[in-house]
Amino acid sequence: MTRFAGSALSRATTALQDADLHLAVSVIASDEQIDALRRVTDERAIELLSGRQPAATDLLMVVTTMAMISDLERMGDLGWRVGEAARLGYSDCAIGHQMRFAVLKMGQVAQWVGASALSGVAFLCVP
User: Fold this and answer.
1) d(CA 2, CA 68)
2) CA distances to 5, 9, 66, 72, 85 from 59, in Å
């Protein structure tokens, strides 16, 4: 899910800067996949919490995962919104030349945040 959300933001930024209608439409379509992953993860977490009485460390891991999943889903929604902006402005770049660098930098930062979250998840999962 981290990779999907990071990819959505990266592709949406590119679509916005390059006025790429095809890429914007693919980002918009991929949001459903991110939403579905969140639903599945939430359902599994609830099953785990209701079916067992997890120890404090397990409970912390499940609650932390649910919070991260929520943030990742919002990250995917942001990609969807940027993709929509790119789709609406596809005949010409939807952003002016003054904003191109700022939008590029924001996309890079969002990608870094996603990659950092992924490495944090890997760290948390190491026994």
Assistant:
1) 9
2) 25, 30, 11, 20, 39
CA angle 93, 97, 98 (to 5 degrees): 135
Q: Averaged over 121-127, what is the pLDDT? A: 46
CB 100 within 8 A of CB 22: no
pTM of the predicted model as reported, rounded to 2 decimal places: 0.73
Which letter, b or e, does each residue of 81-108 get, where b requires 16 or more Cβ atoms within 10 Å of its Cβ? ebbbbbbebbeebbbeeeeeeebeeebe
Query: What CA–CA distance (Å, rounded) separates 115 from 73?
Result: 15
Distances (CA, A) of 27 to 57, 79, 89: 36, 7, 15
**2-125 CATH:** 1.20.58.220
